[in-house]
Amino acid sequence: MEMKACNFVLFSCLVVVSFLVSSSSAQTCLSQTFPNNMQYANCTDLPVLNSYLHWTYNQSDGTVEIAFRRTNSTSSQWSAWGINPSGPRMVGTQALVALVNSSGVAQAFTTSIDSFAPSMQQTDLSFPVPSLSATFDNNEITIFAVLIIPQNLTSTSQVWQEGEVSNGQIQPHSTSGDNVQSTASINFLTGQ
Ligand SMILES: *[C@@H]1O[C@H](CO)[C@@H](O)[C@H](O)[C@H]1NC(C)=O
Ligand SMILES: *[C@@H]1O[C@H](CO)[C@@H](O)[C@H](O)[C@H]1NC(C)=O
Ligand SMILES: *[C@@H]1O[C@H](CO)[C@@H](O)[C@H](O)[C@H]1NC(C)=O
Ligand SMILES: *[C@@H]1O[C@H](CO)[C@@H](O)[C@H](O)[C@H]1NC(C)=O
Ligand SMILES: *[C@@H]1O[C@H](CO)[C@@H](O)[C@H](O)[C@H]1NC(C)=O
After folding, report:
1. Which one of 24, 40, 147, 179 has the lowest number of neighbouring Cβ atoms within 10 Å?
2. What CATH number is associated with residue 107?
3. Residue of the CA atom closest to atom 13 of ligand 3
4. What is the pLDDT of residue 39?
């Protein structure tokens, strides 16, 4: 009897331990899927704003295939992701922006964030972006892009953001809470 109780306690103990270990290391991004069975070599759960970055880096030609996804979005929100060669901050970000436009279709464009009150109009980035699109499904917005980055941007800063769209116009994002925590470093080569 005692042995059984002990084994049972040990068993539940092991179950709890393995659950804690697996839940602390489980990345949400690993279970995310894409149209046409598109797969990426690396992904990371970004720490705030329900955001996830997936990418495949090809060192021989400097291309990075990106899928940036933000869950729990709405059709009246814009989302953006970019890299900032000048550091983990807003100004300088080479951004990809997506929103659901007045046709009800997800649309993406590039813009270089040159000030704290950026125009959010389409501009070229400091590197080529040969492919760019977005989807909006099940309250998830996903930006798909191919970037061609110089060698010195394989380890850099990434910045992401979200805000409201009103009458087709991008509104400024919140300047508190998670919206001012949304930066991280990224190394496209090592996945760290
Ligand atoms: C990486 O790029 C090179 C040059 O474009 C290409 O030959 C190669 O197939 C690419 N590698 C992968 C894994 O796509
Ligand atoms: C989803 O978004 C709504 C409204 O923006 C917010 O109230 C809610 O807390 C969010 N849920 C999660 C899980 O982030
Ligand atoms: C990266 O190298 C390019 C030249 O290839 C240079 O113009 C740019 O300033 C460099 N960027 C950084 C962040 O070092
Ligand atoms: C909405 O976006 C789609 C996809 O980019 C585009 O074809 C369409 O012209 C856009 N509609 C408007 C009103 O801008
Ligand atoms: C990122 O992808 C590369 C190429 O498939 C792989 O070797 C590496 O282990 C991945 N890194 C992480 C942290 O997943």
Report:
1. 24
2. 2.60.40.1210
3. 85
4. 96
